[in-house]
Amino acid sequence: MTRLAALVALLSLLALPARAEWVAGKAERVFGPEMTEADACRAAERLAREAALRARLGERVASEDTQICTEKGEAAECSLHRAAWSMVDGDIAAVRDRRAVTRDGPLAGFRTCQVSLDADVVIAKGQPDPGFDFTLRMETRVFRDGDELSMGIEPSQPMYITVFQWLPYDQSASPVTRLFPNKFDSDNYFAKAGTVPTGAGAPRYGLRVGFPANVPEGARIADEYLLVVATRTRVEFRDAYGIDELKGRLLEIPRADARLVKRGYGVVEGP
Questions:
Q1: Sequence-separated (6 or more) residues with CB below 8 Å from residue 127
Q2: What is the predicted pLDDT for the residue at 68?
Q3: Rounded to 5 degrees, what angle do the CA atoms 189, 195, 200 make?
Q4: DSSP 204-216
Q5: pTM of the predicted structure, to 2 decimals
Q6: Where along the chain do its domains lie?
Q7: By the 8 A CB rule, do 123 and 18 touch?
Q8: Quick one: 126 exposed, middle or buried, by C-beta within 10 A (0-12, 13-18, 19+)?
Q9: What is the pLDDT of residue 1?
Q10: What is the pLDDT of residue 14?
Q11: Mean pLDDT of the chain
């Protein structure tokens, strides 16, 4: 290998933003006549991917992300959203040895699709710094259509805070939007405890939740999610992302230089 080729190879290695490892994952989905076998197996695969991520990253994947929806007929939908949102902690570059087996379910008229796979799990480089952390506080986890949304931030040390909102029922290409900082509230440096909106920004704007369109028929509560990102230095994020786009952007940040907190909440239809 020439000196130039060796230098290029070294620089390529140094530029790698994440580490990968093959991890086994398995999950199943019980389904009735209202769901096709293909949809059930796709749902089981999402959960199997989440299981592989949990095995690689630890229970942090599940513990930070509480399922809000408990109404009959909605828990399954929320479970799929939770699985997708959990993957913000890591990424799956590839899947091999995927196996799907369908069999009779626990009740008459129901079946079960079980999916097992090996996932190439990618996480950001480095190890988290336990001293770089913050507490996220919300007055409630269940809102009514039109309610105001605010949050408290208590940092362990000075940091920059960015707040994203994921609307899983939004069928556009960019269902993740940046709520803060924004044009009315641009200073996201937190040297001590504060709020979003900040004291300076609150007179100029407010954050309100709305019951989304495209929820399953008959659903009375919808799940939505906040992702609060703390970074040591100011990071310029776009106004909107697809989930995979944002996931890739976050994986570029070394784990010691960032802290992520996910928070699910429910929106109830009607006043």
A1: 255, 256
A2: 62
A3: 70
A4: T---B--PPSSPP
A5: 0.75
A6: 19-123, 134-268
A7: yes
A8: middle
A9: 44
A10: 38
A11: 84
